[in-house]
C-alpha cells in the first residue's frame, strides 16, 4: 500500500492525471449488465472522439483523374456535417450535411454567396449509399439509386478544378481554417463504411480505425445517448430550458425531467443542477456502494430508495422527477413518491435554473466525476435533450446513438 501511495504521489508530482485509471483499479467495478460492445474496425465514427477528429484527406488536383466519391452513411443525428471539401482555399467549397434529418448540400457560388439545397430524409439509422458525382459543370448527389440533389458549379469552382491547388476533404467537421460560418452544429454522430474518396488512396482512414477503438462504430445502433463511464456532458441551464425559461416567472412553474436508461455499471450521476458557484443544488445519482438511487437537494439527502430489482437485468428503467409549487415528485417505473417542498426550496430551484452561468450535467459531474455507464435518453420539459447543444461534452459520449444491445425502447 505504501509503495502504491508513493507511486501515485510520484505520478502526481510529474503532473500526470491518474484519477480515471486509479478509480478503475482500486474500486471493485460495479459491472451489472454484461454486453458485447462489438465495435467494427470497418466502421468509421464521423464525430470527434477523445482521440480527436477524423484525419483530413488531401490530394493534389493535378494528380486527380476523378472528383467522384461514394460511401455509406448511417446516422440518427438530425444535424451535422457529413463532409466538407474545398479546392484551392475557402472560396470554393462543397458541404454535405444533415439538417433537420434531411440531406443538405451547400456550395459557394462566387461573391460570398452560398447555395443551400435540401434533399431526402437521411437520419433514420439505416445505412444509405451516397455518391457525389461531377458531370458537365454540375455536381449530383445520389442516395441509393435516386439522384437526390443536383447543383450547378460556379465558374470559380470549375477553374479551380483545372488549377494546381489542393483538394481537401474533412469528414464529420469543417476544415480547421475554413472560416466558413454555417447555420448548423457540426458534430455528426454518424458512421461511414465502404468509402471511395475521389478514386484515391485513403488508407489513413483505415489506419485511424486500426489505431483507435474509440473511432469505431458499433455494428448495430439504437436511439439514445451512450455514456462510457468516464465522461459527462454539461449544458448551460438556460440553453437547455430554452423557451420554457421565459415562463419561469409563472407562479405554477414546474420542472419536468424524464430519464429512460439501461445501465452497464450500476453507478453514477444521472442528473445534476449546479449553481454559478458550482454547488450541487439538485442531483440524482445511482449511489454504488449503498445500491441506492439518491436525490440530494442543496447537498443534503432528500430521498433515497434501493435500486429497482430490474436495474441490472438489462431492462430499460424509467425515472421521472417533477418540481412543482410545494411538491417534488419522483417516479420509478409505475411507483411514485411525492415529497413536500418548501417555498424556499422551490424558489431556489427556479432561481438557479434561470440564472445565466448555472449548469445542468447529465451522465456524471463536472470533469467526469462519478460517471454513468450505459444508454440514457433525457427529456427535459417534455423535449428530448440534444447532447450536441452541450457546452462541455466528453469526446466518447455518443449524442444520438447507443449500441443496439442497450436499446432503451425495450419494454416501452
Ligand atoms: C476534438 O477532440 C479533441 C480531443 O478530445 C479536442 O482537443 C478538440 O478540441 C476537439 N475538437 C473539436 C472541434 O471539438
Ligand atoms: C425531407 O425529406 C422528406 C422525405 O424524403 C421530404 O418529404 C421533405 O420535403 C424533406 N424536407 C425538406 C426541407 O426538404
Ligand atoms: C421559442 O420562442 C420563439 C418566440 O417565442 C419561437 O419563434 C421559437 O420557435 C421557439 N423555439 C422553440 C424551440 O420552441
Automatic annotation (TrEMBL):
Tell me where it mainly resides. Answer: secreted
Q: Which cysteines are joined by disulfide bonds?
A: 375-402
Tell me which domain of life the UniProt entry assigns to the organism this sequence originates from. Answer: Eukaryota
Annotated Gene Ontology cellular components are: extracellular space
**Which compartments does it reside in?**
Secreted
Region forming the signal peptide: 1-23
Pfam families given in the database record: Laminin_G_1 (PF00054)
Cite the SMART domains for this sequence: LamG (SM00282)
Keyword line: Disulfide bond, Glycoprotein, Secreted, Signal
Domain (Laminin G) ranges: 41-217, 225-402
GO MF annotations in UniProt: androgen binding; estradiol binding; steroid hormone binding
Key word Glycoprotein present in the record? yes
Q: What name goes with this protein?
A: Laminin G domain-containing protein
Q: Which organism is it from?
A: Oncorhynchus mykiss (Rainbow trout)
Amino acid at each position: 500500500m505504501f509503495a502504491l501511495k508513493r507511486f501515485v504521489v510520484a505520478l502526481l508530482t510529474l503532473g500526470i492525471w491518474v484519477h480515471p485509471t486509479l478509480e478503475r483499479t482500486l474500486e471493485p467495478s460495479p459491472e451489472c449488465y454484461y454486453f458485447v460492445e462489438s465495435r467494427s474496425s470497418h466502421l468509421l465514427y464521423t464525430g470527434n472522439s477523445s482521440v480527436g477528429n477524423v484525419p483530413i484527406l488531401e490530394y493534389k488536383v493535378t494528380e486527380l483523374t476523378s472528383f467522384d466519391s461514394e460511401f455509406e452513411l448511417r446516422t440518427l443525428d438530425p444535424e451535422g456535417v457529413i463532409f466538407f471539401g474545398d479546392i484551392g482555399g475557402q472560396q470554393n467549397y462543397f458541404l454535405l450535411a444533415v439538417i433537420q434529418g434531411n440531406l443538405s448540400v451547400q456550395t459557394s457560388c462566387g461573391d460570398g454567396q452560398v447555395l443551400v439545397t435540401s434533399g431526402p430524409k437521411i437520419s433514420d439509422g439505416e445505412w444509405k449509399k451516397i455518391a457525389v458525382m461531377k458531370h458537365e459543370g454540375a455536381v449530383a448527389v445520389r442516395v441509393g439509386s435516386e439522384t437526390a440533389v443536383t447543383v450547378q458549379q460556379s465558374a470559380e469552382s470549375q477553374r479551380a478544378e483545372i488549377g494546381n491547388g489542393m483538394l481537401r476533404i474533412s469528414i464529420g467537421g469543417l476544415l480547421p481554417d475554413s472560416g466558413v460560418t454555417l447555420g448548423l452544429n457540426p458534430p455528426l454522430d454518424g458512421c461511414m463504411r465502404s468509402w471511395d474518396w475521389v478514386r484515391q488512396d485513403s488508407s489513413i482512414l483505415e489506419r485511424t480505425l486500426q489505431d483507435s477503438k474509440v473511432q469505431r462504430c458499433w455494428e448495430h445502433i439504437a436511439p439514445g445517448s451512450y455514456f462510457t463511464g468516464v465522461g459527462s456532458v454539461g449544458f448551460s441551464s438556460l440553453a437547455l430550458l430554452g423557451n420554457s425559461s421565459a415562463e419561469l416567472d409563472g407562479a405554477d412553474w414546474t420542472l419536468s425531467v424524464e430519464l429512460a436508461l439501461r445501465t452497464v455499471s450500476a453507478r453514477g450521476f444521472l442528473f445534476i443542477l449546479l449553481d454559478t458557484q458550482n454547488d450541487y443544488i439538485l442531483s440524482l445519482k445511482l449511489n454504488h456502494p449503498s445500491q441506492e438511487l439518491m436525490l440530494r437537494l442543496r447537498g443534503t439527502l432528500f430521498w433515497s430508495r434501493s435500486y429497482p430489482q430490474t436495474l441490472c437485468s438489462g431492462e430499460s428503467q424509467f425515472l421521472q422527477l417533477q418540481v412543482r409549487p410545494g411538491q417534488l415528485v419522483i417516479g420509478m417505473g409505475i411507483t411514485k413518491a411525492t415529497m413536500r417542498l418548501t417555498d424556499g426550496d422551490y424558489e431556489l430551484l427556479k432561481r438557479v435554473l434561470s440564472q445565466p452561468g448555472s449548469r445542468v450535467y447529465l451522465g456524471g459531474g463536472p470533469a467526469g466525476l462519478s460517471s454513468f455507464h450505459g444508454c440514457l435518453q433525457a427529456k427535459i420539459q417534455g423535449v428530448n435533450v440534444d447532447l450536441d447543444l452541450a457546452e462541455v461534452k466528453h469526446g466518447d459520449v455518443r449524442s444520438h446513438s447507443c449500441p443496439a444491445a442497450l436499446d432503451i425502447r425495450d419494454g416501452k
